[in-house]
Amino acid sequence: MSEWSQLERFLQTDPEDVGCGEAMEIMHVYADLVQAGADPEARYPGVAAHLRACGPCAEDLEGLLAALNDPHD
Amino acid sequence: MGSVEPAAHGDTTATLDPESAEWVRALAGGGAGRERALLRLHEMLLRVARGEVSRRAPRLSISGPELDDLAHQAAADAMMALTGKLEQFRGESRFTTWAYKFVIFEVSGKIGRHYWRKPDVRLDTEDWERLPDRMGFDPAHQAEWHDLIVALHRAVDDDLTPHQRRVFIAIVLNGIPLDALVAEMDSNRNAIYKTLFDARRKLAASLAARGYLNHYARRS
């Protein structure tokens, strides 16, 4: 990938992106859907768009899923 | 930015699964039953907090007792937050998933605050020569990206508000994690993300107007 397209990709924003507030509000529901093998991206496309762009929220979801997949759970 | 469709998490309370219903009943009740539930809840939150700090530890400059202390603090604060919001649990997920979320967010916030304990961290330094490295630009292609960096610098100076500029410089140029900036600015993740989102959109428009973006698409 060229440097131009790298920068372009970084600056690109998705109008569907709901932001951290709404993604964090719904993250537990989203996580349960992921774990159930459902399709949270179809149900919450704006949250999915946000999770693709926001490292901290994606990290939180990853942590939540890791906790749900813990054998203690 | 978009929004979550209201129907997706409306205000109707879903039917609770038996385990979730038992948690809510015990925590909303009183006496010894509530005390036992609180103990169980704390054990569970602490286990999740420890798991999460361990998962993130390889990328942090925290280890040993300090890491465990962070887990204890996160579990205690999550416990406080959760019990204060119990009436907000609407059964859209399992109770445990909802509870775990509090711990995960507490861990993120505490790691963000911990970032500032590093001795060499600076918020407002501005070294544009670091940007190519931060963006992963290949030094061998400097002739190709040099003008782009100059244009980006000019757009940051000309088109962003002082707040947008400060957030952009901190996160993009100085590599400060978003949650650390949230802590430093006494803000919240949504506000800082939105500021950076708006800055990115402005910069993309500015660079496109100056003929810099879509460069790759035009050439391919």
TrEMBL record, chain A:
Please spell out the taxonomic lineage of the organism that makes this protein. Bacteria, Bacillati, Actinomycetota, Actinomycetes, Streptosporangiales
This protein's source sits in the domain of life called Bacteria
Put simply, this protein is called Zinc-finger domain-containing protein
TrEMBL record, chain B:
Spell out the InterPro entries in the cross-references. RNA_pol_sigma-70_dom (IPR014284), RNA_pol_sigma_r2 (IPR013325), RNA_pol_sigma_r3/r4-like (IPR013324), WH-like_DNA-bd_sf (IPR036388)
The Gene Ontology biological process terms listed for this entry are: DNA-templated transcription initiation
UniProt entry keywords in alphabetical sequence: DNA-directed RNA polymerase, Transcription
Q: Which domain of life is it from?
A: Bacteria
An example Gene Ontology molecular-function term: DNA-binding transcription factor activity
Q: Which GO terms describe its cellular component?
A: DNA-directed RNA polymerase complex
Name of the molecule in the record? DNA-directed RNA polymerase sigma-70 factor
